[in-house]
Design brief:
Helices cover 34% and strands 14% of the residues. Helix 5 (99-118) packs across helix 7 (158-165) and helix 5 runs antiparallel to helix 12. It has twelve helices and twelve strands. It has helices at residues 14-20, 37-43, 60-66, 85-91, 99-118, 121-130, 158-165, 183-186, 197-203, 223-226, 246-254, 293-311; strands spanning 2-5, 25-27, 49-52, 72-75, 94-96, 150-154, 173-177, 193-194, 206-209, 234-237, 260-263, 282-284. It has a seven-stranded parallel beta sheet, with helices on both faces. A five-stranded parallel beta sheet has the order 2-1-3-4-5, with helices on both faces. The chain folds into two domains: 2-97 and 293-311, NAD(P)-binding Rossmann-like Domain (Rossmann fold); 102-284, NAD(P)-binding Rossmann-like Domain (Rossmann fold), CATH 3.40.50. It is α/β, with parallel strands linked by helices.
Length: 320
């Protein structure tokens, strides 16, 4: 039996896997970096199970390289846009993800970005670190208030729901966009209201994106929809980078068509759209949504448990 682990994690799953399957060959990454495609494909040859990194492209070529004995790909992410699910289904390969560990820290990151963008933290940090700050002044870096403002959550799944729940302390008016009604969000104390995307964009002071990346959500926020937003609004993306047309966002920020943006993900990650990094009215994080020690350890524990379950002939949790 061969189990391949394509990335390095804070908590090494190898000991747990070898305890469960003493005779298994467990192949690790060991480089501290994402594996080049050719090395990745060589690493998975003959694998019965793969614990995959969310940036690995898992397609027909990947499945062919592994071989027909491959039984499970445990993706260490909530999103599975890196996986050809139809091809996995055709081959009878099970795919799992890790939604629970990603939910709460990503919602925290969304609020971090909202607060930082609204209060102009990028500019404030640069001012203080430059040594040119001359002290308090009434008009210095005046930002936007969050208390009792309108928040639009686009994508009201687990992460979107957690983002909405955090609005209670700010007494916000919460709107949400989803494919179905969410009674748990519409009831007290959140009392959110479901709206169409265009209507919500026109009303919101803060727009937070937490949708999966699909054909329908690619460039969901484009130039036209940015144009619907208030010029005082803040846009935050903790979903996937291509949900936003990054070039259109740069133009909107340059023209001060919206007040600010906060991004944890990027359209061509890790590359940035030309002009984005130079903008003062955007807060940029390097895809840190779930980056707490506790939650990253939980991710690998969950993926490892899924592999063990499938290789023992059991149904794993979080089967996609």
């Amino acid at each position: 039996m061969i189990i391949a682990v394509t990335a390095d994690y804070l908590q090494d799953p190898i000991a747990c896997l070898q305890k469960a399957f003493p005779d298994a060959e467990v192949r690790s990454n060991g480089t501290g970096q994402i594996l080049p495609r050719d090395i990745l494909l060589s690493k998975i040859v003959g694998a019965d199970a793969v614990i995959a990194f969310g940036r690995d492209l898992i397609d027909a070529e990947f499945f062919d390289a592994a071989g027909p004995q491959l039984r499970i790909v445990a993706n260490t992410a909530v999103g599975v846009d890196n996986i050809d699910l139809a091809e996995a289904r055709r081959r009878g390969i099970r795919v799992t993800n890790t939604p629970d560990p990603v939910c709460e820290p990503t919602a925290d990151a969304a609020w971090l970005l909202m607060l930082a963008a609204a209060r102009r933290v990028t500019e404030a940090q640069e001012l203080v670190r430059s040594g040119s700050w001359e002290g308090f002044w009434p008009t210095l870096l005046v930002g936007r208030k969050m208390l009792r403002k309108t928040l639009l959550v686009v994508g009201a799944g687990r992460i979107g729901g957690a983002i909405a729940r955090r609005s209670i302390g700010w007494e916000m008016n919460v709107l949400y966009v989803a494919n179905s009604n969410k009674p748990h969000l519409e009831s007290s104390p959140i009392e959110a209201r479901r709206v169409a995307l265009e209507d919500g964009l026109a009303q919101a002071d803060f727009v937070c994106l937490s949708v999966p990346l699909t054909e329908e959500t690619h460039h969901l926020i484009d130039a036209r929809r940015l144009g619907l937003m208030k010029d005082s609004a803040v846009l935050v993306n903790v979903a996937r980078g291509p949900v936003v047309d990054e070039a259109a966002l740069v133009r909107a920020l340059e023209a001060e068509r919206i007040f600010a943006a906060g991004l944890d993900v990027f359209e061509r990650e890790p590359a940035l759209q030309d002009g984005l990094a130079a903008l003062p009215n955007v807060v940029l994080l390097p895809h840190l949504g779930s980056a707490t020690a506790e939650d990253r350890n939980w991710v690998i524990e969950m993926a490892t448990a899924s592999v063990i379950a499938v290789l023992r002939g059991q149904v794993p949790e979080n089967l996609v």
